[in-house]
Amino acid sequence: MHLVADDRDRDNLGLPLRDDAAFVGEGVQDMTNLNYLHEAAILFNLRTRFFAARPYTYTGDICIAVNPYQWLDIYTEAIRKEYFIFGRKELPPHAYATSAAAFNGIQEGGPNQSVLVSGESGAGKTETVTDGPMHGRI
Questions:
Q1: C-alpha span between 123 and 132 (Å, rounded)
Q2: Rounded Cα–Cα distance for residues 23 and 45 (Å)
Q3: How far apart are CA 54 and CA 125, in angstroms?
Q4: Are 79 and 56 in contact (CB under 8 A)?
Q5: If we measure between CA atoms, which residue out of 101, 82, 98 comes closest to residue 90?
Q6: What residue ranges in 8-124 does DSSP mark as E strands?
Q7: Where are the beta strands (DSSP E) in the chain?
Q8: Could you tell me which residues come within 8 angstroms of residue 20 by beta carbon, excluding any fewer than 6 positions away?
Q9: 123: which of 22, 82, 90, 119 fits an S-S bond (Cβ 3.0–4.6 Å)?
Q10: CB-side exposure of 7: number of CA atoms within 13 Å?
Q11: What are the percentages of helix, strand and coil residues in the chain, rounded to 5?
Q12: Interhelix angle 77-85/95-107, nearest 10 degrees
């Protein structure tokens, strides 16, 4: 357990109750794996992934997207096909995984599927469902 004790710790990004190993490199892909799940840890992980150009992060079955404000080459046909072939846990978080899970649920004779896309104005909802990963896939 790490508690912020003085200004020196704050300068080193000392978050209270944080799992230091979880924030190395690109952050945590699924935030249910965080040892300490609180607002500061969630925001720090999303920030870490944003600066690593990883706009998607899972929280269990939920896929959180942070607008990268730049074009990332992560919406190719080859990448889309990978998410239909491999399982969700075998590839990095992506909206393609959500699309593939819904499609596969229908193919396996499961119940009707729905995908909820929510966010503030300018967050990339339209990009996700029309020009991006979801378009024509379900």
A1: 13
A2: 7
A3: 17
A4: no
A5: 82
A6: 56-59, 62-65
A7: 56-59, 62-65
A8: 2
A9: 119
A10: 0
A11: 40, 5, 50
A12: 50
Residue among 104, 89, 95, 85 nearest 126 (CA): 95
Question: Do residues 95 and 56 make contact, with C-beta atoms less than 8 angstroms apart?
Answer: yes
Using CA atoms, how far apart are residues 113 and 15, in angstroms rounded to an integer?
39
Residue 96 token pair? 């393609």
